[in-house]
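Listing S7. Sequence submitted for prediction.
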Amino acid sequence: MSNRVVMLAGGQGSRLLPYRTIVPKPLLPVGDRAVLDLVLSQLARHDFTDVTLAVGDLAPLIRAMFGDGGRHGITIRYSQEHEPLGTAGVLRQLDLDEPFLMMNGNVLTTLDFKALFEAHRQSGNAVTVAANFREVRADFGVLDLDVADGTHTTRVASYVEKPATTYSVSMGIYAMEPVVREFIDEHEQLGLPELISRVIAGGHRVGAFRHDGVWLDMRRREDYERAQERYDELAPLFAVA
């Protein structure tokens, strides 16, 4: 099994202000450890030991903390982003000739990375997206309106106060085949949603791997605060206690 991981660790984390003021968001503390420290420990436990960190302006802080990865029993390489490449553009800059995991460096989850990767290899997918479920609730009373009758008023068929809809959403964790790089131009700024749309349009199969367990996206203030408040409870689930 390939043990290669490409991890995005260069975002600015504006949604986490004022928490992220002087450190990169992957270095924000959860309990007594940094988010990225927890994630790297998880990857090592699942035998993913060859990690490339895509880093940005605050790269020196990440390098100073994690070095070559020896403390975690892994090998860390760094890909410095000197111009914005988006969440997918970095893949064009790397030498990737075997299947790999790609993920955000600020995700805490009970996902079995190895199970995701093995399912991906058996599926024949070009990309397999780890998927979780999130409920999105409207902050308003929502009206179902009949077709307008030519006046300023329209008949209301129903009125639902703050309805909720459940969506299947990307966890920011992907298993990929090297062929995806063919859909990225050199030095192109490209996001992962756009890349996956191109892969599908190119006739390649993209699948989803459902995960019903814990998933916390540390870019979201509410998820970050939940991780802090429940760290003692969650840490054993992440198998990094």
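Caption to Listing S7: primary sequence and predicted structure tokens for the chain studied. The two ends are 26 Å apart (CA to CA). The chain has one domain: 4-127+169-234.
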